[in-house]
Specification:
By secondary structure, this protein is an alpha/beta fold. The protein is built from 22 helices and 17 strands. The protein is globular, with a radius of gyration of 25 Å.
Amino acid sequence: MSSLKEVCDGIPDPLPPRRQRDETVPHAPVRTPDLTPAEQRLALQNALRYFLPNQHEVLAHEFADELRNYGHIYMYRLLPTFDMRAYPIDEIPGRNRQAAAIIHMILNNLDPRVAQFPQELVTYGGNGQAFSNWAQFWITLSYLSEMSEEQTLVMYSGHPMGLFPSNPAAPRLVITNGMVIPNYSSREMYEKMFALGNTMYGQMTAGSFCYIGPQGIVHGTTLTVLNAARRHLGTTDMRGKVFVTSGLGGMSGAQPKAATICGCISVTAEVSKEALEKRHNQGWVATIANNLDECISKIRHARRQKEAFSIGYHGNIVDLWERFVEEYENTGDLLVELGSDQTSCHNPYLGGYYPVQLTYDESRIMMHEDPIRFKNLVQESLRRQVTAINKLSDLGLYFWDYGNAFLLEASRAGADVGRDESATGTLFRYPSYVQDIMGDIFSLGFGPFRWVCTSGCPSDLDTTDEISANVLEDIINEGVPETIKQQYNDNIRWIREAKTNKLVVGSQARILYSDQVGRTKIATAFNNAVKDGKLKGEVINGGFGLVLDGSQDAGDRAQKMLAWDVSNGVARRCWSGNNNAEETICRTMDQNKSLKVTLPNHVQDLDLLDRALQE
């Protein structure tokens, strides 16, 4: 297992010597699936399915130890010993360039520079898995290296179901993750099913192998903060404005970088010294404050200087919010204008949220040894956090939920977040970033659009930056509505400054937000650049994943698939009643007569509803 070729040969036989996980590097928290003896037996039986019968005697005892000690069977014996990174596509063995591009993406997802807990196959988010165990990794790479263009690999929650006959126009890989009947979709049942090897939480881009490091969330957070300032501060000049948040992990680590790009002062709390120092060494956090007095002093200095500056506070976010309240009560100074939270509250009791009453190390012990008490402390901490945020909000702070279930878990803890079960769903005192900030942008057809240069050449990425910026500028010059022009300009600025901002971690990748017109024209321009030799390697783009190899077939697929990808999302928002989405989809139907979307017929006289119900 020392070379890339051996990686693609599948699970080695004979097996390599037993290995323990490396305790000197960050690793995922111990899971607590609370399996019955019968379920433990089934988990072991399920794990052994990947191995030859003559290997079961050795592995059964080993896997039982992993289940007892870590709450899951990761199969550490199969940890790779080669240099895990996104190898250039020409160095990846196989019969199929599209399959080689997928291997490129998988290796990037588990690159130690990119992945949050690579030993446990967690790419980001605390529990966003690329695979459930290392056997799945080896088998998947073996399938991809041998597959032809007449086959499609099908995967279910990390498990490689197999190669199925298809055709060259079909997808090379079809994935589903976490498909569970709603009646069994509780957190407790998920922990059991993950331990049993039945399902896996792949987040958005971990289990689909599309993760490009924190750059993606840098871009999304940049647009979120810019548009939050436009909407709630009435400006995009953010000099001297303070944005406070928490989390410096795989995704949340992007926040200080984004804030600096926006021109504001960011303060990001992080309880893990390792995570904080990683972002500082990376250059995404400018300075570290090790106590509250030092943090407040740095904030006041940066406000006076009106400089773009990022502060990483080594401590708990609850302490920080409460200190802002004290500062106002003692001095009358409101030191923060914008606030959010990016702790992994979708997983609050297994390392996604650390309570203020405990140290980081104390939390990691208690969450496993005394989970009930730990849960109570987490909920108490959430209540304190919300109390402080509420006081600051009453004074002028604009706070939003970042889609991480912070408000949901706070409401479950009994915090005063104004939860209201309305006819249109759950409403909280604070809006989500999608609901209040980014929703109108999505309704215009704009959304994440990323690409990866599988050649691995930085010069290729430079070329794609230039191509994409030029394409967007040409679209503006052809004439677009003002609302769309603003979004294009934000993204042109992002692309023009991308290299200077040093956003690449792992694969040579880039992201921007674009609508259907921009995506299609950029993809076509990339495909032509490969065909004309301006780019040395294939380019993968999308959310669905599309290899642009310079061929006419790839160009045709880009036209069709990108049109579907955007219009499908906008049509859904249109039917939900969003005016921007309706205008966008109507404009798209005018441009493409083969597109037919069911449009809502709006009630003009709303009093009619009351009159009808009163009869």
